[in-house]
Amino acid sequence: MSREKKTVKKTAKKSNRKKHTDYYDYSLVAVIILLTCFGLVMLYSTSSYMAEVNYGDDMYYFKKQAAISLVCIIAALGISRIDYHILTRFVGVLYGMAAILMMLVKTPLGRTANGARRWLNLGPLSFQPSEIAKIAVIVCLSYMAVHMGKKINTLKGLMMMGGSGTALAFLAYAFTENLSTAIIIFCITVGIFFIAHPKTKPFLIAAAVVIVLAVIFVLTLNASMDTSSSFRLRRILVWLHPEDYASGDGYQTIQALYAIGSGGFLGRGLGNSIQKLGSVPEAQNDMIFSIVCEELGILGGVIVLLLFAYLLYRLFFIAQNAPDMFGSLMVSGIFIHIALQVIFNIAVVVNLMPNTGVTLPFISYGGTSILFLMAEMGLALSVSRQIKFKEPERLL
Question: For residue 22, what are the β-bridge partners?
């Protein structure tokens, strides 16, 4: 064999080794399924007593959540097989649909539950349109950031991106009276803008100013107010002095703290919670973490946090290795959303911040929440499916 032919053969072998390999984040799928199954176990344990009392069926909440979780996991795997770039064709439609659906809450189509008018009835479907707004702001702002390019560093870029996200946050607050969701949408907006923006200093200065103003506001409120007609201001007062409102607005917070304290390090044992027997109102919703800590102890709570940390790590990995900026920003937005909900929920349960009504992802009861969370996971998996790695070259 001639020297030229040998050289060509070696080059062909090298190019074969450099071939790109397709990737799919099975680790993300595994942690999603693990969190969902854990959530179902804790949901049954938390809700069985009240479900039996109210509906005569101890599996009432469990069966509904299990059915929708199974369907949503299958749907998420289906979404992961679709090229996420198809969303770029429907950015305007998605944004407009989110805005219109939130405004419809104030019409006769809106439904009130637990004293809040946040649901929308469209035939047999009942859901919270503010959840669609979270996905809309993630997709739309990611698309805008990519197409603006260097213009994002201008005042016009700030107004366009900031205004688009803030508008959805305002609609969530004005039409669904959901301040916590409005804050989450606004934080997602700031987060995506921060990641896409080339400069860091302005954001650090703005964050410092906001923190100082928030501290001054809380200290002033604490020193000058004992009661308030505004339920949001009362929530801050309850947060500062829950023991003073133990028989009223602070009851849920105090009972949740009792649950965590009585669980100790290893807990009372699965199914042995006392606080779930009516002491913690709606324990299966945003206060479910307190029952986790009561039954499984601080150790169980730490394991839940580690599962969420691993979920966020997988999202971070996908965002870092995404094939393009659109996919990277979109997964970054999903990362911010999940992280905010986990932080807000657990901070409320342990009384590190005022009550917000934010649910714990994949664990709290709620069909709308699990539906749109799984849609986001499907998008993240769709991005992961297009990640391609080069195989390492061999020296010999």
Answer: 388
